[in-house]
Predict the 3D structure of the following.
Amino acid sequence: MLEIVGTVVEEPILANISVSVAIGLEVDETTDVSVKKQLDVHVRYMDKNGLLYSQFLDLVTVSDGRADTIVKAIRTNLTKKKIPTQRIYGLGTDGAAVMTGRVNGVAKQLQDTFPWMVSVACAAHRLALCCKEASSGVAYMNSFRDLLQQLHLYFRNSANRTAVLQAAAECLGLDNLKEVKDTRWLSQAMAVSNLQRNLTAVLAA
């Protein structure tokens, strides 16, 4: 039933992509709950009126995170979905070495086949990783980040503790705590600001 529903949802999207004038791919690695490596593939395309659309394309399980494996998975997926490869003009990645390596990276291998394709790395992602690396040499920053994350997980990993915190926050007219992510721009600043606002509720919980 899920496959039928997926096909019904996917068909008009693929039909629109097949007649678009320009296509871009966005790819990123992830893992599922069983720690199997997967490739998240999104597609952006432009219609004849110049309007841009962004759609989820597929989640592909891969055996490892090597560039050759990722490129093979992308090529197989494009063939399976009948994406017009001659109109793929862009590739967006997180900037990791496996994606942007000059000699054998994913972008380099795809550009060997599609020389007109432009590869772009996420600027916000790179900035966040630079900030993380710059602060990793400061012991206080490491412990500070760990404490924020541990506090978030302390509540998130327990339904009872979460309920107590939510009750305290609602009573005081506050929000819930925010998770700290090194790859999310300004997530630490948001987590600190949110904790400042919720400190009374956190202490009460």
